[in-house]
Write a structure and sequence with these properties.
Length: about 260
Amino acid sequence: MAALVVLSAVVGLAVGSFLNVVVWRVPRGESVVRPPSACPACATPIRPRDNVPVAGWLLLRGRCRDCAHPISRRYPLVELAAAALFAGAALRFGVDPVLPAYLYLAAVGLALALIDLDVHRLPDVLTLPSYPVAAVLLGGAALLGSGTGSVPRALLGGAAMYAVYFALCLAHPAGMGFGDVKLAGVLGLYTAWLGWGSWAVGLFLGFLFGGVFGIALVVAGRGGRKTKVPFGPFMLLGVLVAVAVGERLAAGYLALTGV
């Protein structure tokens, strides 16, 4: 298990490096493959030795080798976040064949959260392909004998969470974008695969986290009732908790309330 966690973390570092490219280029409609990464100030291509996740930034002391332009701390932080998410998924699922499905969710979820924070948009180019990817990875896990979930429940959960967000979007379009609706279906697939408790926890916590953040903005005097807040990151944070401990939280709540 330890070897799997370490390997997953190392893969996560590499994926995080690529996600930095995705987060910058996708909202601008640019290719994530070409041209190679370059300094935004002097346009000098990044050397392979400087492109090593985290270590490259540390060795350069956060500055371009050629023009000394500052390199944002966000780059190594994204790489470390991806490594942590990948390691956490390995701890959660071990060698179960469903692990690749949740590694994909971690990667695309991190990219979508950052893009939503930056431009208040959840690009279709990332969200929509996640449906067939989830179907293939979860379906493949079921065929390979994963005992962690159910494909029919996942499909029903995806449709149900999509329907909930679609109804909310119709009822209050100013408060929720259709990108959130499209993301909800994907998240419903992954949470319902694990169980209805995880599905419910993921749904509830997304609104809870978003609501707490909105209240905090108002209390701090940095926003009002009409301040637009990107909701995707809170949806994804709720699902992160749901995947990690959703079934236990749901069981604890039912035991506490006597339902």
